[in-house]
UniProtKB/TrEMBL annotation:
GO terms for cellular component: extracellular region; plasma membrane. Residues 563-583 are annotated as: Disordered. The lineage of its organism: Eukaryota, Metazoa, Spiralia, Lophotrochozoa, Mollusca. Residues 1-38 form the signal peptide. The keyword Secreted applies. This is Semaphorin-2A. It comes from the Eukaryota. It comes from Potamilus streckersoni. InterPro entries: Plexin_repeat (IPR002165), PSI (IPR016201), Semap_dom (IPR001627), Semap_dom_sf (IPR036352), Semaphorin (IPR027231), WD40/YVTN_repeat-like_dom_sf (IPR015943). It is found in: Membrane; Secreted. Its main location: membrane. Residues 46-518 form the Sema domain. PANTHER family: SEMAPHORIN, SEMAPHORIN-1A.
Length: 761
């Protein structure tokens, strides 16, 4: 390297602590790399598709004269083959079979009043948002509907009666919708309409600062206002009507974690339907409101948490693992969880049993004696008896001490743990996260086992189809399909399964509605492709891949040795599910032959009497950076070059690859910097004038406690600096007689003691 060293000013090599700091950063990056790599269990979608590759896909087309902005679609209700969609100034009645707006029932139109629109625009809201977006819909009977909308940031609710003979909706009553419906269609809110009552979790002000859970009747009940122990900036996700209670799911700032910094926790809260409020200070306040944390984390000595609940599935009878018994199921739901925005981008799916939620609410409460104390479990002797969580016939009879305990202790101590102890599916990506989920519950497959099939939406417009193939307590995730449904990478906000004379999956974003079949069995042309799909809905029978619970299959391993065309298909077959030619995946070595990578496995009888592979030879399996399954069985998977369908323009980079590239770039940069610093220091050493350096040190000295160790010759004499009399440089108001030489007088000079360990200014 060539440097003009004489023009470089006093540059010295980095001190040891700085170098150690950089080394520690590299170690941390390597640890991060290893953590990312440990998540990557070589599980990837068996098939990748675009929407044009999916046969019989349908899209809802709205009239051209209505295409004047975002409709903020929201699925409100399903009735038979029809689904009612909340949109801008209307409720759409759409067929789930054809995805066309039905002509049998006239659509409900409800635009805002011009006066409310003008006021909304004066509040600096856009003309698009100053419309009436329908967010809440309830039904009393076959003819009466309860509807709430944003109504130009002035929420209102109406009761309509549908007149069959005139095929139109007649207005029956109108009331305020504040506390029942959000002001903004982009606000997260949820509502349950049951027994003629609306239970809603939303905001009650224009700026969305005041959140509440309210039952809106003539004598409404609600959560305590301005109390962060009850609700602390929540984002509502969903709600269930279960027996005599209403359950709300949301995420909020965790007040019990405030001593460790701000954090968002996921919650499940519940209230009793017959809660009438309390007396005195609790009048109009829920006496049955309690909440608990929903835990979704990768278990270990230091668990990795997915703290932000994004969506929930429906509540139904299911099982997070595959089972051979039809009665081995329980009431449960699945939840979508994300990491914070400033963390490692990741998503997870966790399953929860309703019985586990009930047990947590029957347990201990969490509280703190004062703001200076930690949050700790409340001892049983300090808990009212009977347990406050029980629904009572008349809440107005609850005594004052119990009401005081209820008001100050809404949080349960234990968290609701996921079924199986951890996520059933994990997703890591630099570009997308999970955003919605629905489940096809307990589908019987050709192996006579029952599976919960998960359909998961992402915020870049994709739909993943996944199962847990594990036979037992172990979780072994399989992602069957990855379909790009939304062309513009629009976030998917809702998913709905329809099962009638046809089976469809309804995929909804804020701007579009798309319908696709639940499976693509008929698009697999060979037995090998059908088996490799590992789809419980598909089996090879009568020379076709069909949606039936009988035929050739291998869901556990996905190896096609059981197929009659296994020898030919492994070496020569190509996927035919796309409309464009698919080249062999570049990530599979050319020397990898199916006969070498995956020899025929030994067969043994499983607990269900089915023949499955139990031993295999060494394999090569490509890695994935998008979907990661938790595979607790350390078994080797077969090399399958035709399992993963890659388009010509697809480029897959694993998270571990990017992390390793980052670490290598940092290390190289450090080495280059050290070399440059070393060259500069050597150059400076040869060009330095010793006499000038000694003069510099004598003139400027050092303020360090032990300056001699930094001197050039091993000694550094600062005696003159400390012993020279120091004159104070300010004007005094002493009499002139005491200072005859100066008109304003002067201060007597004082000698500062020689103390080299102190610095005087």
């Amino acid at each position: 390297m060539w440097f003009r060293c004489k023009h470089i000013a006093m540059v010295s090599p980095q001190p040891f602590p700085v170098r150690m700091h950089l080394y520690l950063q590299v170690v941390l990056l390597l640890e991060l790399c290893s953590q990312v790599a440990s998540w990557n269990m070589h599980v990837q979608p068996n098939v990748r598709l675009q929407l044009q590759d999916v046969s019989d896909a349908k899209k809802f087309i709205i009239n051209k004269d209505e295409e004047n902005g975002v409709n903020y679609y929201k699925l409100l209700m399903t009735e038979g083959e029809q689904m009612l969609i909340g949109a801008r100034n209307k409720i759409l009645n759409i067929s789930m079979v054809t995805l066309n707006e039905t002509t049998m029932t006239r659509r409900l139109e409800w635009p805002p009043r011009s006066h409310d629109t003008a006021i909304c625009e004066q509040k600096s809201q856009s003309k698009e948002l100053c419309q009436n977006y329908i967010r809440v819909l309830g039904k009393d009977n076959d003819q009466k509907y309860y509807v709430c909308g944003t109504h130009a940031f002035a929420p209102k609710c109406r009761k309509f009666e549908y007149q069959v003979e005139k095929s139109e909706f007649k207005l029956d009553q109108e009331e305020s919708g504040i506390g029942k419906c959000p002001f903004d269609p982009r606000h997260n809110s949820t509502a349950v309409y049951t027994d003629g009552k609306l239970y809603a979790g939303t905001v009650s002000d224009f700026q969305a600062m005041l959140s509440l859970i309210m039952e809106g009747t003539e004598s409404p009940r609600r959560t305590v206002e301005h109390d962060s122990n009850w609700l602390n900036k929540p984002n509502f996700v969903g709600s269930f009507d279960i027996d005599d209670k209403i359950y709300f799911f949301f995420r909020e700032m965790a007040v019990e974690n405030i001593n460790c910094g701000k954090a968002t926790f996921s919650r499940v809260a519940r209230i009793c339907k017959n809660d009438q409020g309390g007396i005195t200070a609790m009048k109009g306040i829920w006496t049955s409101f309690f909440k608990a944390r929903l835990n979704c984390s990768i278990p270990g000595e230091f668990p990795f948490y997915f703290d932000e609940l994004k969506a929930t599935s429906e509540l139904s009878q299911g099982n997070y693992m595959s089972t051979a018994k039809s009665d081995n199921r329980t009431r449960m739901f699945y939840g979508v969880f994300n990491t914070p925005d400033n963390s490692i981008r990741g998503s997870a799916i966790c399953a929860y049993r309703y019985s586990d939620i009930v047990n947590v609410f029957n347990g201990k409460f969490k509280g703190q004696e004062s703001a200076a104390h930690n949050w700790l479990p409340v001892p049983e002797f300090k808990t009212p008896n009977p347990h406050p969580q029980a629904c009572v016939n008349n809440s107005l009879e609850i005594d004052v001490p119990t009401l005081g305990f209820i008001k100050s202790h809404p949080l349960m101590d234990a968290a609701v743990q996921p079924a199986g102890g951890g996520p059933v599916l994990i997703h890591t990506s630099f570009s997308s996260r999970f955003s919605a989920i629905t489940v096809d519950w307990q589908v019987i497959a050709a192996d006579n086992r029952f599976y919960d099939i998960m359909y998961i939406g992402t915020d870049d417009g994709r739909v993943l189809k996944a199962i847990n193939k594990g036979q037992g307590s172990d979780v072994e995730s399989v992602v069957i399909e990855d379909i790009q449904v939304m062309a513009n990478n629009e976030p998917i906000v809702s998913l709905k399964i329809y099962k009638g004379h046809t089976e469809r999956l309804i995929v909804m974003s804020q701007e579009n509605i798309v319908s696709i079949p639940l499976h693509r069995c008929n698009q697999q042309k060979t037995c090998s492709d059908c088996v490799k799909l590992q789809d419980p809905q598909c089996a090879w029978s009568d020379g076709k891949c069909m949606a039936r619970p009988k035929g050739i299959h291998n869901i556990l391993h996905g190896t096609p040795e059981v197929c009659p065309d296994a020898g030919r298909a492994e070496g020569t077959s190509k996927r035919t599910t796309t409309s464009t030619p698919v080249p062999p995946p570049a990530i599979v070595p050319k020397s990898c032959k199916p006969c070498i990578c995956a020899s025929k496995a030994n067969l043994s009888e499983t607990e269900d009497g089915q023949q499955n592979h139990v031993t295999r030879s060494s394999t090569i399996t490509p890695a994935s950076d998008s979907v990661i399954g938790i595979n607790s069985k350390k078994e080797l998977l077969p090399c399958a070059p035709s399992v993963v369908e890659m388009r010509n323009d697809d480029q897959v980079y694993t998270a571990s690859t990017l992390a390793i590239a980052l670490v290598i770039s940092v290390v190289v940069s450090m080495l280059v910097g050290l070399v440059i610093g070393y060259r500069i220091s050597v150059c400076r050493h040869h060009t330095r004038n010793p006499e000038q350096m000694i003069a510099y040190e004598q003139n400027f000295g050092s303020l360090r406690k032990n300056p001699n160790r930094h001197s050039l010759d091993g000694s550094h004499n600062l005696m003159n600096h400390y012993t020279e009399p120091k004159k104070l440089n300010f004007v005094s108001n002493l009499p002139a007689s005491k200072s005859p030489n100066l008109p304003n007088g002067t201060v007597e000079s004082k000698i500062i003691p020689n103390n080299p360990n102190k610095t005087y200014i």
